[in-house]
Design brief:
Layout: H1 2-22, E1 28-35, E2 40-47, H2 48-55, H3 67-72, H4 74-83, E3 85-89, E4 92-93, E5 96-98, E6 103-107, E7 110-119, E8 128-132, E9 143-149, E10 157-161, E11 167-169, H5 177-194, H6 196-206, E12 211-214, E13 217-220, H7 224-250, H8 258-278, H9 285-307, H10 314-343, H11 347-374
Parallel strand pairs: 1-9
Antiparallel strand pairs: 1-2, 2-7, 3-4, 3-8, 5-7, 6-7, 8-11, 9-10, 12-13
Helix pairs in contact: 1-11, 5-10, 6-8, 7-9, 7-10, 8-9, 8-11
Length: 380
């Protein structure tokens, strides 16, 4: 019994930390660079919440940023940007200057400041390097998502700058199809691994896969074969569903407001977790996976849109990102199922993991739902 409660306490701490760390989308900024005849045009979108954290834009401390508060710090924002972005073409530093006024734009996770800049360097013939270091000193998880259109090109190179990849080469030629595919596969894997709402939904559906419901009680599945068949139905339904809506959204056929999508995704986690307590639709979890998977696909599409879509290689980006999502998802399933099957006969799994784990998941997801649906900013 002591081990059971120790395990439950560990689960509680895990989900509490998860909720604290991932209630919001991770910190990203977005840069679009396009080579011109004698300079490079730059659009840089930086989240106001990040700028406020570094520069304390909220002068009156009321928790709400106004346009006036942001505009008054225009020069400070520019100095911050220039200090953390460097372009070097053929060994020469490209001086940067603003080309337009500071503007604001809405992203799926809030309001961003938009900087319009120009780097004064001619299209390089050999090398072009970029160094990005915004927020790395205060937030090691921050990333700079870059879309680069090389000289005379229509294809786009996608790059991700992080603390361990703060300096990278920008290609002076259009990226190959294989390079584009690889870039978006990696991004798809990364997205599913940092998307705890997607992971919790999938795990909530998989938790009962190694059990069977008899007379209102969960009992161990008789064989690995039956458990794997249950897993296969759930994973296949989820994969097919989110692939459909991901493709439709990216290709512009269907669009839903991000606030609604993110709220329903949180609600789907609550429903899936609570279902484990009663087993109401135990034999049709694949149906739940398919129905809610359609909504999760719109969430994936929003993440892909934030990365930027290369118009010259849209199909490759879509295929690569979706393939990455599936590979990341498969890795989670492969890591989870053997352990769950091994523990399925224990009280720890049936009570500690399935029952108490599902309750904790439902609590965390309910918190996400309240934040997303009612735009509530909590303590984390």
């Amino acid at each position: 019994m002591k081990r059971l409660w120790t395990g439950i306490a560990a689960l509680f701490l895990f989900f509490l930390c998860m909720g604290s760390a991932w209630a919001h989308k991770p910190s990203d900024s977005y840069l679009s660079l396009r080579a011109q005849q004698d300079h490079i045009d730059i659009r840089w979108d930086i989240a106001l919440r990040d700028l406020d954290y570094v520069l304390q834009l909220d002068r009156d401390g009321n928790g709400e940023l106004t346009w006036g508060e942001v505009r008054q710090r225009n020069d400070d924002i520019l100095r911050l940007a220039f200090a953390h972005l460097l372009l070097v073409g053929d060994g020469q530093t490209c001086p940067m200057q603003p080309t337009g006024p500071l503007m604001l734009d809405k992203h799926s996770d809030g309001t961003y400041a938009v900087l319009s800049l120009k780097a004064g360097c001619a299209a390089p013939q050999t090398t072009l390097k970029m160094r990005y270091s915004l927020l790395f000193d205060v937030d090691p998880t921050h990333r700079g998502l870059v879309q680069w259109v090389p000289p005379g090109g229509t294809a786009t190179q996608a790059l991700v700058f992080s603390g361990d990849s703060a300096e990278q080469n920008l290609q002076v030629r259009a990226p190959s199809a294989l390079e584009t595919l690889r870039q978006y596969v990696v991004e798809g894997i990364w997205h599913i691994w940092i998307g705890f709402d997607h992971i919790l939904f999938l795990l909530s559906l998989l938790l009962p896969a190694v059990l069977v419901r008899r007379q209102r009680h969960w009992e161990p599945a008789p064989s690995l074969k039956s458990a794997l068949f249950s897993v296969l139905k759930v994973v296949t339904a989820f994969t097919v569903a989110h692939s459909i809506t991901l493709s439709l959204a990216v290709l512009g056929f269907v669009s839903l407001p991000s606030r609604i999508v993110e709220s329903i995704i949180a609600a789907s986690v609550v429903v899936a977790a609570l279902n484990n307590l009663r087993g109401t639709i135990e034999k049709r979890r694949w149906v739940m996976a398919f129905v809610f998977g359609l909504i999760h696909g719109f969430g994936f599409a929003s993440a892909l849109a934030d990365l930027g879509l290369p118009q010259g290689a849209l199909a490759l980006a879509l295929v690569g990102f979706n393939l990455g999502v599936e590979l990341g998802q498969l890795a989670i399933v492969v890591a989870f199922v053997p352990v769950a099957f091994w523990l399925r006969r224990t009280v720890f799994y049936r009570v500690g993991v399935l029952t108490f784990g599902s309750i904790l998941v439902a609590i965390v997801a309910s918190y996400w739902f309240i934040q997303r649906a009612f735009d509530v900013q909590g303590p984390f």
